Amino acid sequence: MTPAIEMKGITKDFASTRVRANDHVDFSVEPGEVHALVGENGAGKTTLMSILYGLIKPDSGEIFIDSQKIRIDHPNDAIQHGIGMVHQHFKLVPSFTVAQNILLGMEPTQAGLLNQQQENELVAALAEKYNLPVDPTARVRDLPVGMQQRVEILKVLERKAKILILDEPTAVLTPQEVNELVTVIRGLSRLGYTVIFITHKLVEVMSVADRVSVMRGGKMIGTKKVSETSIPELARMMVGREVLLRVKKKEMQRGDVVLEARDISISDVNGLAAISHVSFQVHRGEIVGIAGVSGNGQTELVEAISGMNSLDGGEILFKGKIIDEASVGERRDMGMAHIPEDRMVVGLNLQTTLDENLIVSRYDDSQFSRYGFLLMKTISEFAEKVVRAFSIAAARPGEGIATLSGGNLQKVVVGRELSGDPAFIIANQPTRGLDVGSIEFVHKTLVEERDKGAGILLVSVELDEVMALSDRILVLYRGRIQGELDAATATEEEVGILMAGGNLQDLKYAQRADQQELRS
Amino acid sequence: MKKNLLYVLSILVIASVVLTACGGAAPATQAPATEAAAQFTCALITPNPLGDRSFIDASARGIARANEELPVKCDIIETNGVAEHETALRGAIAQDYDLILGLAMDAEMFVGLAEEFPDQKFASPSEIFLETLPENLVAYQIDVHESSFLVGVIVGSLTKTKTVGAVVGGDAPALNQFYYGYKQGVLEVCPDCQVLVSYLGFDFSNPTLGLETALGLYDQGADIIYQVAGRSGEGVLEAAAQRDLYAIGVDSNQDDIQPGHVIVSSLKKVEATTFDPIKMVVDGAFAGGFQRRGMKEGFAGLSWDEGSTTFETQGPADMTAKIPEIKTLVEEYRAKILSGEYKVCDAFVPETPECVELLAK
Amino acid sequence: MNNQRWKKLLDAILVPVLAVLSGLVVMGILILTLNKPVLESYAILFSNGFGCKEYGNCIFLTTLERATPLILTGLSAVVAFRSGMFSIGQEGQYLLGAAAAAWLGYAIHLPPILHAPVLLIAGMLVGAAYGWFPGVLRVKLGVNELLSTIMLNSIAALIVEYLVQFPMRADTSAVAHSPVIDESAQLMSFFPGSKWGVGFVLAVIAVIVVYIYLWRTKSGYEQRMAGQSRRFALFGGILSDRAAIRAMLISGALAGLAGAIEVMGVHRRIMTGFSVGLGFDGLTTAILGQVHPFGVFIVAILFSGLKLGAQIGLQLNLNIPRELGGTIIGFIILFVAAGKLYEENIVRAREWATRRRSSRLKRESG
Questions:
Q1: Is the domain defined by A257-510 classed in CATH 3.40.50.300?
Q2: Which residue of C has its CA nearest to B28?
Q3: Which residues of C touch B199 (CB under 8 A)?
Q4: Each residue of B121-151: pLDDT tens digit?
Q5: Is the pLDDT of residue A465 over 70?
Q6: Burial class (CB in 10 A: 0-12, 13-18, 19+), A8
Q7: How many angstroms separate the CA atoms of B98 and B117, rounded?
Q8: What is the dotted CATH code of the domain comprising C59-305?
Q9: Which residues does chain C have within 8 Å of residue A306's beta carbon, measured at their own beta carbons?
Q10: Of A329, A330, A360, which has the smallest distance from its Cβ to C225's Cβ?
């Protein structure tokens, strides 16, 4: 069979970063297959796809479509050759309707006038054809992220693409939406479309792809049939060494209560209730996982505990003291650490140096300042120490951090938060957007802290992560705790039911019904 | 966000710099007239850019006249505000001009420079309020009380409401010299007339303020207003046109600004005090110290003296009919004043009998 | 990495140099249209901005003297900007600081060792108070500091104009001014015939102090973090509001000091038209100086030198009208502000050069 796409010897240097993003990469895709392209952040997969889509010009290399050598200088060329791309950050007009977005620039006109009715019908027909139901009249800004992605895919299909490039399509989706997307991709593949799927989540690769290509450090490491490979093998290819995909945990040594929430209520930025009447405890030496679909009050809960936001009611006790009135700084002085979900804006200041990022929570310590002056030498030594202890590659004391990769940035955050021997750690989405190697590092570090006796509140929308790390799982649903599970015995199914707002009685009832059905 | 704001700010800053740079209006009138014959050089330092339509432009006209009529080559150096005055003066000193004219400079600074450079000749076409001056600095003062008296005679003869007004830039002798003379003139020909006055608190650059003040005076029954308020006074002329009433111009000939509404202008010829020291240097008769000039020397006068007929041709018939008669009256008073037979109150010496009498009214 | 740092430094120098060169090219074209000698005008621009011909009339000293208030108002803007406050209130703070110093200069009589410091401190206090106000408005009531400082500038201008016209008016001269301040309150100048003196030294000290404050003290760290990322500061436990108000106090004090020095070292009194947008020029200086104290120092000297050279030097020597001089400065600033243009082209040129080199190497080896 002739490959649908063949890229040969693609090389691209970026002079500004002095990095060879693609180094003689060969890549080919069979028609009608779902081909996953995996690699850690910075492995060069997005560069390769941007070259294919005409966003970046390669320094050398050739591209063939159906064995025909072609030139792609601009996305328009790519579209002409039937290549469409769905970007990680959608390029939709939020205030336009679904139909207007899909037909943008190619609206059917009658005597130069737009016909709303006709547009909606066209899009409805399109949605039916590909089995991607959407409401053509809904405004994009009102749609959930998964739906917006669907609009993007329809937009690409409407432009007669036969080959779809999806750039990290699952990064922004909830688990349910991921499942739906997997179904959509399989459906498209059955209709004869070729799908290239960029990701670093190996579970998704196994569930959706036919073949998988692995890149590392700008080089193509290899291409495998999914049926003939395994997650550990792919992880090894990606990272270049053996990777622990599931951290080993020692038996929990549960200590005293370190943090307690008593009947707390919190409102969001719009003044609506985000958390209502929630109570829980975190002990020393345990990891309490908060599972839940994103937007169920996690952000508000974390901000209230860390002191960045105030409570509407109830009280929070830290080491037995009520801290409702304490400022962020006071809580941090008491031994609270916080790994925030947004490291780019909240957790780090990308405009300043590594040193200054590392002292933000502790510049007031007598260790780092005296008589109002910063002790530059101690600070720089401290930075040196953190860099070494957390092996933050490429980071140098006294230099900026803006060019570091996501994984290294998260190491800076983790390094800062954990270097003060905290008694309690809030870890909110600590591995979001990280690659396999970095995830392993963060997980290992958190478990080490637990073993050293810190209480950890782990907030994550990644079900796997919560299941793997937690000792106890609380499921947050619409601002309430929907249920509590012992991580040792909990199943993904149980957690999933609670995340969706169901309760465990329903599950048991359903199971019993199943069994009865089997028996009869 | 921060970057963007910075960019917006930079653009604003640039725009303002470019605009202020271009907003200086009228280009410098630097006619290098008789370059070959030039023996003497001089430079005029202006306190602000040209284009004030007032004493700076008048002074520049004096320079232009000197370049035309005298064997000199004179330049105009524009500055923008006090911060540049001394720099510009020093720059001019370094250029070895024969005479440096500083218009409305800070008195102490100017005198200090004159003392520092005793071999350099300096002149101030505008008044300097100090006790003494060094020998190499001459400062001019134009007395306007006599010419303002003549304005008062004209106004007193033309008013129908027996109420007239004055809009004065500020309550200071230099400005009251206009006002007192004017008041005396009005009352001389119309003893039962009322003279209203409004001071603007030294705001010389606010035509809107002038306009509103003048409208207030017109509302109180005044039908002719004498403006002594620089740019603010342009608002007074505007108010006259709005109300179809009358005003008097000041400093330079303003009869054509609102034709038919400006009866006459009282001239304070800064062009003459600019020209005069240059001529002194050319004639080899330079002398430091204070120079007072007035109507007698032709440094103050009326626009009618220079042949302005704008009001005569465009004013209402009932008023223009009276003008020949008034002109005769004006000339009678002018002769009496110049001969010393009649004394006009000078606000700089308020203790004289004529002032005491006037201020009592 | 060392190589990288050199390249960065080279870029930092190359960009403004290219910008100034482009400005000079435009200047040449403008001067050609006036039929004036282009090369001579360049020479005059520099000799009249940065030259020093004779004793007692050294223009570069005047440039330094004129740069003094610019440095201080520039620093004022730097401190405010670095806390995330877009205060453009330097003009008002400068004027009020000047008025305070001018008043105390003649109203009270003290021995020299006390009088000058008292005036300087008074100027700073008044400026600080006038900076504190928009800071509090911002923090407590959310009033946009850009708008409030614009308004406060107008208010200050009117207040000072009133003070100079009435209560502080010295005599009846047409241009209102206050009495000359006591000898004991005047700042010494280093050379007769120039006003360059102690004020400039104070400005240099201020540059160093501001640098140390911003990068070596806890308070400076707090305000920079708050200025760069409020969320980050909140997350780290920094009290951003307090840092912002403190920054506004310091910013106001620096602008007030500029006003006091201008009175004590240059004019010895305050008069109508005391500030001709000096506060605003300080803002320009801060932005062009990369919002850094050292940048401000260099830009302030360049800026005042260019102003003298282009607006007065070209007039005096070549009869080039002041408006054209102003236009030339405007263009130079424009090109400096558009520095990004050069940065991108430098990168592009470098990429092109590397590619050429590598392809040549390939050809030679193959």
A1: yes
A2: C321
A3: none
A4: 999 998 888 888 999 999 999 999 999 999 9
A5: yes
A6: middle
A7: 12
A8: 1.10.3470
A9: 235
A10: A360
